[in-house]
Task: inverse folding
């Protein structure tokens, strides 16, 4: 297992855009009948390498979304994006969800499913081949995508750790 190299980021000066990934209606049965509440899974990002996700729960949908946005701003990470794509292939697993990210040539676009697409677009990735291999549960897919993004290493760090030039990293 490699250690996570995610860098935490403060939301203070960033211009973050929000995307609601999933809204869930939850029911609690009480003596007086059913009580409804909502949970919202939200992804925020500046589309330039910073992305975060959060979960908000409340009696009203809008309040749940607002709480999710606040939670997402507390969980921001920096993602190494090179020329609009990820630097290398990465596989990650969270619960039963497994995701695979592969770099893609310029002009390919974001080839990814619903909740993965929201995370990758918020991170500023414009060209990537991504596949959700396990469960389609949005919560676990988002968490697995974040795990994969946090495990990505920048080429300059790889070159330093191997004591080789940056050109040799790309030659293989």
Result:
């Amino acid at each position: 297992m490699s250690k996570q190299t995610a860098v935490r980021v403060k939301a203070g000066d960033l211009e973050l855009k929000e995307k609601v990934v999933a809204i869930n209606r939850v029911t609690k049965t009480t003596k007086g009948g059913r009580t409804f509440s909502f949970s919202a899974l939200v992804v925020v990002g500046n589309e330039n390498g910073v992305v975060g996700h959060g979960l908000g729960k409340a009696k009203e949908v809008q309040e749940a979304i607002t709480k999710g946005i606040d939670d997402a701003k507390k969980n921001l990470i920096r993602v190494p994006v090179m020329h609009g794509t990820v630097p290398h292939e990465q596989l990650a697993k969270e619960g039963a969800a497994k995701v695979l990210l592969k770099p893609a040539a310029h002009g390919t676009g974001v080839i990814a499913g619903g909740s993965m697409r929201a995370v990758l677009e918020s991170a500023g990735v414009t060209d990537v081949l991504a596949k959700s291999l396990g469960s389609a549960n949005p919560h676990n897919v988002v968490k697995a995508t974040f795990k994969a993004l946090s495990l990505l290493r920048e080429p300059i760090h790889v070159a330093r750790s191997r004591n080789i030039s940056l050109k040799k990293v790309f030659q293989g």
